[in-house]
Structure formats: structure tokens, C-alpha cells
Design goal:
2 helices; Helix Hairpins; rod-shaped; 85 residues; two-stranded antiparallel ribbon; mainly alpha; 7% strand
Length: 85
């Protein structure tokens, strides 16, 4: 049975858009201090999650190997951080 792979792109893109929105609001300086702190905390959380997605993608890219015919293939025996269930 084929292994299902998650596509982080839509969630990643949505997170990027939200982070850009937060940055824009904070840069304009018209946000009350308490709201600015809440937005900042949300932005830090989102950026950490995005960094995690990028790090996992980097690991997957580094796992490429050439097969006998010289074509690149992803190795199947690599531990996937999402399979920790």
C-alpha cells in the first residue's frame, strides 16, 4: 500500500500570508500595545512552525540518492518525523 504524504504547501502558504499580515500591522505602529504583544507572540509561533516545516523539507531533499541507472530517488528507509505515532 502506498504511503500517504502530506502536502504542507497550502498550510505553509496560509501561514506565510498570516505572518505578512501581522508584520504589516506591527510596522504601521497603529496597534495598541497589548494587541501588538499578542500579534508578536502569534508571529513568533507561526515563524517557528514554518521553520520546522522548512527544516523537514530540507531533510527530505538531502535524502535523495542516485539509483543504479543514475536517476535520483528518495530513500524509503529514512525516519519521517511525522510517523512518531
Amino acid at each position: 500500500m502506498a504511503k500517504k504524504t502530506k502536502s504542507p504547501a497550502p498550510a505553509f502558504e496560509a501561514a506565510m500570508m498570516r505572518l505578512e499580515e501581522i508584520v504589516n500591522r506591527l510596522e504601521h505602529g497603529s496597534v495598541p500595545l497589548e494587541d501588538a504583544m499578542t500579534l508578536y507572540e502569534e508571529g513568533v509561533k507561526i515563524s517557528r512552525e514554518m521553520l520546522d516545516v522548512l527544516n523537514r523539507a530540507e531533510v527530505r531533499l538531502k535524502v535523495l540518492a542516485k539509483d543504479v541507472d543514475g536517476a535520483f530517488a528518495v530513500l524509503d528507509d529514512v525516519d519521517d518525523p511525522d510517523d512518531e505515532e
